[in-house]
Amino acid sequence: MPETVAQLWEYEAADAIESSAAIVGDKIYIGSLDGTLHCIDLKTGKAVWTKKIKDAGFKASPGIKDGKIYVGDDFGKFHAFSASDGKELWSFETEGEIISSANFLDDAILFGSYDAFLYCLNGKDGKLRWKLESDGRVHATPAIAGGKTFIAGCDGMLRVIEVKNGKEVGKVELGAYSGCSPALDGSKAYVGTFGNSVLGIDWKASKKIWEFADEDRGHPFISSAAVSKGKVIIGGRDKRIHCFEAKSGKILWQFETKARVESSPVIAGDHVWCGSEDGNLYRINLNSGKEIWRFESGAQIAASPSIAHGRLVIGNGDGVIYCFGAK
């Protein structure tokens, strides 16, 4: 992102935005709670097309691969749409709400459902390859690295699974259930929990390496962590954005907002971008934790920022989608 940013445009959706945008080329793809999928021109902020599904909404963020949009809805149906015109190509039924966003490895698509399963589908036709049952709802997006996928779920476990066959090859007890996607850095994973803690985990050794728990001001962590340059950044329901030393879990700084932080931070260079339910989008120095810039949107921000091509896109609870960049 440029050093100086300004609002470039805003786009009015019909309902609240809780998911993050996918930016591919000069197009933005984002879903709203009324079940509308929006394709927006990145440069102008004008709608290219919209697609509305009946009796459902989108809390999951869309994933884009090979000209297709993959996203689940809150009635438990997982969809594939054409990125060019929004035409539905296929769908797959689960037995629970889908808030987990899709992730990919080659032609495999992975996502979780509130029916307690992690699913792996064929990208081409939506046929089931395998599904793995956990002991609780799968809220978060699966992470993928080294041919493995990682889920932290409502069963209080971090599970490591081989993508090729769905076989579980490792797990670590988190001590409480989690709605966060694990942030991966080599053999380490970082994740927050509803038990008011943030954990650093060596997933290869199947053990915790550190745990943070604020006994004086303990609140759950719904935000997924970001990791860069030896630092782990995560938002909390304690109204703060936290920075930990990745190796030790030592607190490096904590940034106060005025409401819960469920938005997941994005690190770009030496800056952290994150929304808060106080309605602000914050830009914070990664090293010092000092505020550089903020934008007041006028409604809570639960969505996470998306950054590409020198632009940042984020939506808020009033259904307004904002784009920022160099003026």
Walk me through what this model shows.
The protein is mostly beta strands. The protein is built from no helices and 32 strands. It has strands at residues 6-12, 22-24, 27-31, 36-41, 47-52, 63-65, 68-72, 77-82, 88-93, 103-105, 108-112, 117-122, 128-133, 143-145, 148-152, 157-162, 168-173, 183-185, 188-192, 197-202, 207-213, 226-228, 231-235, 240-245, 251-256, 266-268, 271-275, 280-285, 291-296, 306-308, 311-315, 320-325. The strands form eight sheets. Strands 1-32-31-30 form a four-stranded antiparallel β-sheet, with no helix packed on it. Strands 2-3-4-5 form a four-stranded antiparallel β-sheet, with no helix packed on it. A four-stranded antiparallel β-sheet has the order 6-7-8-9, with no helix packed on it. Strand 26 and strand 27 (271-275) form a beta hairpin. The protein is globular and about 50 Å long. It starts with 5 loop residues before the first strand and ends with a strand.
Cα distance, first to last residue? 12 Å
Q: What is the oligomeric state here?
A: single chain
**What's the overall average pLDDT, rounded?**
95
Number of strands: 32
Strand line-up of the largest beta sheet: 1-32-31-30
SS class: mainly beta
- Spans of at least 5 consecutive residues with low confidence: none
| Rg, Cα atoms, Å | 19 Å
Residue fraction in strands: over 45%
- The best one-word shape is globular
Compute the number of helices: 0
The major sheet is characterized as: 4 strands, antiparallel
Helix content: under 10%
